[in-house]
Amino acid sequence: MRLLLIEDEERLADALSYMLRKNKYGVDVAFDGETGQAMAETGVYDLIILDRMLPYKEGVEVLKDLRLKNIFTPVILLTAKDAVSDRVAGLDAGADDYLVKPFAMDELLARIRALSRRPLNLVQEDCLEYKGVVLNPLQSEMIIESETCKLTPKESLLLELFMRHPGQVFSKEKILDNVWGMDSEVERNNVEIYIHYLRKKLERSEVRITTVRGIGYCLKEAGDVS
């Protein structure tokens, strides 16, 4: 499960990301609202932990904009404000849960687990579909012509990135940021390796991952590949 933490207090962000990774969650961190929103809009996260008071763009405004753009990734809103009106404003903006600072880490973990147990259609789209290829991101499974193919977590994240943006060209750096995380030290040739794996698994489909020389990779229908 991949999480996005948007929190401007660096000491708190470091502590939370450490504990989340210790509990086997993948975590990317943003320290301001504008950066956090841009990362959230990639659509690669399973859940967002969003602080309310952020520089450049306040958390509730980030949340409103995400919902207006039809991004329904579950959001836990963190805040020091505990008035009923503040909680109502956050929930009305589209938050799925609300946690008042200071809070116990065990409580945050419990709320993450609770949101992850929701029916798939409440957490995110059940599946993504493009030209006969169906991806179930939560199960890391791809279906082609009624046959199910199990994907590794990284293969699933990579295919999800392409299927959410068919035809869009992604550089290796952009893929690394979205699939492995901005703080990852994974080398660029890992992208080539996983592209190769996915291409083999897509051979029976009408979909191809094409190389745009000098720029990156994109997902296209086989007939559009020159």
Compute the separation of the termini in Å. 36 Å
In what range is the share of β-strand residues?
15-25%
Care to count the β-strands?
11
Tally of separate helices: 9
Helix amount, in percent?
25-40%
Instruction: State Rg.
Output: 18 Å
CA-based shape = elongated
Strand order of the largest sheet: 2-1-3-4-5
Q: H/E order of the elements? A: EHEHEHEHEHHEEEEHHHEE
Q: Mean pLDDT, rounded to whole units?
A: 86
Biggest β-sheet description: 5 strands, parallel
Low-confidence stretches: 119-125
Query: Which structural category fits the helices and strands?
Result: alpha/beta
What does this protein look like?
This protein has nine helices and eleven strands. The strands form three sheets. The chain has a five-stranded parallel beta sheet, sandwiched between helices. A four-stranded antiparallel beta sheet has the order 6-7-8-9, covered by helices on one side. The model is unreliable at 119-125 (pLDDT under 50). The chain is of the alpha/beta class and 226 residues long.
Entry keywords:
226 residues; alpha/beta; single chain; elongated; 5-stranded parallel β-sheet; 4-stranded antiparallel β-sheet
Question: Short description, anyone?
Answer:
This protein has 226 residues and is of the alpha/beta class. Helix content is 40%, strand content 23%.
Write the layout of secondary structure elements.
Blueprint: E1 2-6, H1 10-22, E2 26-30, H2 33-40, E3 47-51, H3 59-68, E4 75-79, H4 84-92, E5 97-100, H5 105-116, H6 120-123, E6 128-130, E7 133-136, E8 141-144, E9 147-150, H7 153-164, H8 172-180, H9 189-201, E10 207-212, E11 216-221
Parallel strand pairs: 1-2, 1-3, 3-4, 4-5
Antiparallel strand pairs: 6-7, 7-8, 8-9, 10-11
Helix pairs in contact: 2-3, 7-8, 7-9
